Records
---
Amino acid sequence: MSRIDASGRLTSQAISQVLNWQPGDRVTLTADAGVIVVRRDPHGMVTVPARCSVPIPAGLRHRCGLRPGDQVLLAALPGQDALAACTFAVVDQALRAHPLFPRREGGSS
């Protein structure tokens, strides 16, 4: 998990330790329905800063409804050289659509 800081950045050890992204690497960001996907891309318009965080442009934050202080669930996808950041609304929808535990007979979940 990570929190969006006041400048719209995500900071996580997964960026440098799991994905091995380095300061100066370029990334491309896309967003759709509460999920931001960051991929290392030599032609990307965003550069990973010295602190190994990911600056999320304001337009993408607004599209996903993210504000400073919001927490997101991060998923590192090393095989795709990507990082996905999901809002908790998306996580909640996924859990409701695919319950982890069966409902008890005669009762609610």
---
Amino acid sequence: MRIQKATKKYEAWLAKNLTIVPADLALKHTRMAADAFEFLRATFYRWVQVWPEVCPELARAPRVLAVGDLHVENFGTWRDKEGRLIWGVNDFDEAYPMPYTNDLVRLAVSAHMAIAANHLALAHEEACAAIQAGYREGLEAGGKPFVLEEENKWLRESATGELRDPVHFWGKMSALPSVRGEVPKSARKALEDLLPAPGLVYRVAHRVAGLGSLGRERYVALADWEGGRVAREAKALLPSACVWAKDGQGSKKIFYEEIITSSPRALDPFVHLRGRWIVRRLAPHCSRIEMAAIPKKRDEERLLHSMGFETANIHLGSKQAVKNVRRDLAKRKPGWLHESAKKMVGAVQKDWQEWRKG
């Protein structure tokens, strides 16, 4: 199946299961043509078709509850119940039982493409080696949350760049356009349940964010509370694109809440699944981190090592599978991740070029 046909079929499936925002979907199509990294982020549905064909042996590796749509910009920060700043993967829209190798190869592919787009300055082999080493270390350590307080000072500095300044953040939030038309009652209730006080007067805005989920309904409640601004977001969810790729076979469960509660990480107490909505707090340091927002002076090898470690944190939530994952990983040659990533980069580039022509 070619990329244009796959996209039409996937979006038809989306339209059957949720309400599409046409203008956002059109923007997604435009951004998919911008560069290969944007295309990768936007097309997990295509990845799950191509990945088993290009890497059939890896697709038979031990399965875990995986992120699925993992990439170098799927990391961010949040505050845990103690108010501490935490770093890690912050989007699990596509979470699904998959081979553990899927997340590692997809993360490595995104690093390859970030290097090509001048977002990272490492060699491709170094990037893959750092991810692989971090993953191994995470498994061996039994996992550990990335708390950006006494430890991880270098990561705190990388995660608190100038673009995440409160003045800049709230300026962007205030500029969001108000929603025209009805907001679904279920979305309003999900937002109101997460606001800091009952009966709070708020404005509902439309937010354009992400790429994989661009085209779905996304509402932000903005309010003033006790001397400052607060924001809560509700985003429409449906089962992973893995379900679509299997023609509806397999579990149609949304695994978002399960994956964040099963792994050895510090939870964000403001992230909840409410029916078909994932709701969360938005704040200057409670959001995804784009590569452009990370200070230029950074230890990139260490950053990718941490991303590999955090991937292990998540996979460790699949306790029954960990022994098999360790055994499988120990059998693999040192350069397996780099070699597999190169193959998938080629497949993604081919689809991207075809998308641009179409």
